[in-house]
Design a protein that fits this description.
The protein has one domain: Alpha-D-Glucose-1,6-Bisphosphate, Chain A, domain 4. The chain has four helices and twelve strands, in the order ααβββαβββββββββα. It has helices spanning 20-40, 70-92, 131-140, 254-282, and strands at 98-102, 108-114, 118-127, 152-161, 165-172, 183-194, 197-204, 217-218, 220-221, 224-231, 234-244, 246-247. Strands 1, 2, 3, 4, 5, 6, 7, 8, 10 and 11 form a ten-stranded mixed beta sheet that branches. The protein has a two-stranded antiparallel sheet with strand order 9-12. Strand 10 and strand 11 (234-244) form a beta hairpin. The model is unreliable at 1-65 (pLDDT under 50). This is START domain-containing protein 1. Pathway: Steroid metabolism; cholesterol metabolism. GO terms for molecular function: cholesterol binding; cholesterol transfer activity. It catalyses: cholesterol(in) = cholesterol(out).
Length: 283
C-alpha cells in the first residue's frame, strides 16, 4: 500500500541480476515507448505536472476535493476492508514463497506468483519504533511521507471516511536511474488496530471526479497490506511485514518490474530507518 506507500523504482545492482548495462539499454527503450505514447496524446514530460491546472508539487486545494455521498463512504470503507482481508489471505498462504533478497541486517524479501502471472513481494524486517509511531508515520500523517521517502513526489488525502479509511492520490518522484518511471495512484487505504498490532491495507479505486491524469501512467496497487507487530518484551521494536502487490501498467517487461519492485521495498525501509533514527536523535 502504501503504499504507502506506496510507491516507483530505480536501478538494480544485485549480484544475481544480469548486467546493468543490458538492463539500462532495455530501460531506455521502454521509456522511449512511454514518452512516444504521451506525445501521441499531446503531452510531453515537461507538461505532465501542469495538466488540467493541477500542480502536482502542491496539495490539492480543499475546495477541489471530491465530496462523497453517504453510500459512497460506506462503499469505500467496505473496499478497504475487503482489500485488507484479501491481502492477509495472501500472507497466510505459506505455499509458493521464494526468497529474493537477504540483507545482512536481517531484512528478507520473498516473492510468489499469484493468479494472472503477477509477482507479489513480502518484506520482513525489524524496526526500532513503537507500533503507534509507525502507524502515525504510515497512515495518520501519510501526506508528510514525501519529506523522508525520496521515491514519493507527494501524497494527497482526497477524503477521510471516518477515522480508519482514507482516499489518497499519490505521485511517485522522478529520479535518476528510475526504470519504471513516474506513476500516479488513486487508492483507498484502511487501518485496523488489534491489541499490540496495526494492520494497514489498501487497493486501487476509481473516482469519476478524479480520472487518470493525462501524461501519467496510472498504476494500480493492491490488494496490499502492512502489518506492524510489537516485539515481545521490547515496546521500542516492531516486526514489520509488507506485502507489495502492484500492477505498474504501461509497456514495461515483467523482468524489469520484478527486479525493480523489491529494490523499492529495500529503499523504502532504508529511508524509514533513517527517518526514525533522525527523529530519535532530535527527540
Amino acid at each position: 500500500m502504501l503504499p504507502a506507500v506506496v510507491k516507483l523504482c530505480c536501478g538494480i545492482s544485485y549480484p544475481h541480476l544480469r548486467s546493468t548495462a543490458a538492463l539500462q539499454r532495455t530501460a531506455v527503450a521502454v521509456m522511449g515507448q512511454e514518452i512516444t505514447h504521451m506525445q501521441r496524446w499531446g503531452q510531453s514530460p515537461q507538461r505532465i505536472r501542469a495538466h488540467a491546472g493541477l500542480n502536482f508539487k502542491e496539495p490539492i486545494p480543499e475546495d477541489t476535493e471530491p465530496a462523497l455521498a453517504q453510500k459512497d463512504q460506506q462503499s469505500y470503507v467496505q473496499q478497504g476492508q475487503q482489500a485488507m482481508r484479501k491481502a492477509l489471505r495472501m500472507l497466510e498462504d505459506k505455499d509458493g514463497w521464494k526468497v529474493e533478497i537477504k540483507e545482512s541486517n536481517g531484512d528478507v524479501i520473498c516473492s510468489k506468483v499469484i493468479p494472472g502471472a503477477r509477482k507479489v513481494f513480502r518484506l520482513e524486517a525489524v524496526l526500532e519504533a513503537s507500533v503507534d509511531e509507525l502507524y502515525d508515520l504510515l497512515f495518520a500523517r501519510v501526506e508528510e511521507m514525501h519529506k523522508w521517502n525520496s521515491s514519493i513526489l507527494h501524497i494527497n488525502v482526497l477524503n477521510r471516511v471516518g477515522r480508519d479509511t482514507i482516499i489518497t492520490h499519490e505521485v511517485s518522484a522522478e529520479r535518476a536511474g528510475n526504470l519504471i518511471g513516474q506513476r500516479d495512484f488513486l487508492s483507498v487505504r484502511h487501518s485496523f488496530k488489534q491489541k499490540s498490532s496495526v494492520y494497514l491495507g489498501g487497493a486501487a479505486i476509481q473516482l469519476e471526479s478524479f480520472p487518470p491524469q493525462a501524461g501519467f501512467v496510472r498504476a494500480e496497487d493492491g490488494p496490499t497490506c502492512i502489518i506492524i507487530q510489537a516485539l515481545n518484551g521490547d515496546k521500542r521494536k516492531c516486526h514489520f511485514t509488507w506485502l507489495l502487490n502492484m500492477d505498474v501498467k504501461g509497456w514495461l517487461p515483467k523482468s524489469i518490474v520484478n527486479q525493480a519492485l523489491p529494490k523499492e521495498q529495500l529503499d523504502f525501509t532504508r529511508n524509514l530507518r533513517r527517518h526514525l533514527t533522525a527523529s530519535a536523535t532530535q527527540g
